[in-house]
Amino acid sequence: MMHEESLKRLNEMKTLKYNWNGYGAEPIPIDIIEKTEKFIRQLNSEVEIFPTANQTIQIEKENNFGYLEIEIYEDMISLFFASNYRKEIIEKEVNEREAFEFIDKFMSMSH
User: Fold this and answer.
1) Interstrand relation of 89-94 and 77-83 (parallel, antiparallel or unpaired)
2) What is the distance of C-alpha 40 from the center of its chain?
3) Closest to 106 measured CA to CA, from 58, 48, 44, 56
4) Rounded distance, CA 34 to CA 47, Å?
């Protein structure tokens, strides 16, 4: 089942307590977890996900072309991309549609 591992990790994030990282991090808000779950379910590939000390969730995908990182905040989405072939780094705020378009483009480059 696609996304099984990502969804399992998200479910585990619901149980994080104060200081889950040993440095005083607050738990990840449930609305961020739910927003991330909806986002992941729309993707066409498995991704790595991680909680952050900023009360956000980071989504990562790497392929031969480069590294893509998307961070889900309560009120925005941040995108970071680094190419393995060109000296290109992109870092910007995006809306959900722009994030999906970038992910689709990124995934098509791995074939």
Assistant:
1) antiparallel
2) 8
3) 44
4) 16
